[in-house]
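Page 42, continued from yesterday. The earlier attempt failed because a stray header line got pasted into the input along with the sequence. Redoing it now with the clean sequence only.
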Amino acid sequence: MNTAVLSSTFLLTLLLAVGLFFFIKASVKDRTEQVKLVSEQAEDVLASELKAYFSQRSYRVAAVDDPSHQVTFEGLVRPSWFLAIFLTMLSAVGMLCLGLVLSMLVPARGGIFLLLVLVSPLAGIFYWKKAGRSEQVSLKLEGLTLEGNQTQSLITVRAHRDELAAMQKALGLKAAD
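This time it went through. Structure tokens are written below.
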């Protein structure tokens, strides 16, 4: 095969391997966000609803700061079997491709490069160890009085973005303007 073709194929495969590395690394990245949400319910009703919601999702109250109306919930986030297997398979395909290109570049030692596939389970192990962690949700609840004695509640929440989306959907909360 042409040396220029092999060299460019190797370069592209190496770039894809680097991308795969950062993709695996990003699978365990912290995605904590802070948002302000509004509810039509009164502050005390919403507080009990929030406590029930987080208890249902296996969170427990970790800290309560009464003067500032702030509550911190803590729960254990379990890693996903599907994602661990997916990352392992993706890594195996990437390492196989890299091994094939290297075996074409260095035909004398070609078979040894195919053993790169054996490092692919490290991707799943890396995800499994880093993704299973304790996560905190911090809530600050404030009552708002609008025109005409209408009350609303303003919640400032700091949590993982997936947890925020699930909470917003389950409790019918709207983003504050």
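Notes: Strands lie at 32-39, 60-65, 70-77, 133-145, 151-160, 174-175.
Reminder to self: strip header lines before submitting.
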